[in-house]
């Protein structure tokens, strides 16, 4: 991705230019040609109504985390230490990392199975940027963080699909 400010070459998906520090999320986006594209480029992730995050500590037993996912009918948990995200554990992690061995792994800490250092989005990020981050990273969930790096919400690919369906129906 080429920075429009300095012409520096950057890896796809980076937030700021490595050479000049300018944000890349808007500079590389094409001009919108439809109302849906315009909405994607203008709307902030707040319009997706991020869900309140559910936090667990890194030492929480995986059995307890799985029970919380089922009981709360949610797709992921934020693993936090001192309020800051250190990992994320999703239903995909349960399937891929635990698989059929979940019962015998129940007492192990969630830190052994979480995806460490989760990708996050700023509260003022645009919906198009959230969609791009999910696509490039292969994520189905993205934590939303405030300026202090504290998780304030979480969005999922389902939230984006609902948003797009509403925009297309309008």
Your description of this structure?
This protein is α/β, with parallel strands linked by helices and 170 residues long. It folds into 2 domains: 30 residues; 135 residues, CBS-domain (Roll). The protein has 6 helices and 7 strands. A 4-stranded mixed sheet has the order 1-2-3-4. It has a 3-stranded mixed sheet with strand order 5-6-7. Strand 6 and strand 7 form a beta hairpin. The chain is globular. 26% of the residues are buried. The model has no long low-confidence stretch (mean pLDDT 89).
Briefly summarize what is shown.
With 170 residues, the chain is of the alpha/beta class. Helices cover 32% and strands 18% of the residues.
**Rg over alpha carbons:** 18 Å
Structural category is alpha/beta
Portion of residues in beta strands equals 15-25%
Poorly predicted sequence stretches spanning 5 or more consecutive residues = none
Distance between the termini: 33 Å
Number of helical runs? Answer: 6
Write down the secondary-structure element order.
HEHEEHHEEHEEH
List keywords for this structure.
170 residues; alpha/beta; CBS-domain; 2 domains; 6 helices
Helix-strand layout with pairing:
Elements: H1 35-42, E1 55-56, H2 62-72, E2 76-81, E3 84-90, H3 91-98, H4 102-105, E4 115-116, E5 121-122, H5 127-137, E6 141-145, E7 151-156, H6 157-169
Parallel strand pairs: 1-2, 5-6
Antiparallel strand pairs: 2-3, 3-4, 6-7
């Amino acid at each position: 991705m080429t920075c429009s400010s300095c012409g520096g070459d950057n890896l796809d998906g980076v937030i700021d230019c490595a050479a000049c520090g300018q944000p890349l999320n808007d500079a590389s986006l094409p001009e919108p040609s439809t109302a849906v594209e315009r909405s994607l480029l203008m709307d902030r992730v707040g319009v997706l109504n991020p869900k309140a995050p559910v936090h667990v500590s890194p030492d929480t037993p995986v059995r307890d985390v799985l029970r919380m996912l089922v009981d709360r009918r949610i797709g992921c948990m934020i693993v936090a230490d001192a309020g800051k995200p250190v990992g994320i554990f999703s239903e995909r992690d349960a399937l891929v990392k635990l698989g059929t061995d979940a019962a015998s792994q129940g007492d192990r800490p969630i830190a052994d199975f979480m995806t460490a250092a989760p990708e996050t989005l700023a509260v003022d990020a645009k919906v198009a940027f959230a969609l791009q981050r999910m696509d490039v990273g292969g994520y189905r969930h993205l934590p939303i963080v405030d300026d202090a790096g504290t998780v304030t919400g979480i969005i999922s690919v389902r939230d984006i699909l609902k948003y797009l369906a509403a925009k297309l129906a309008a």
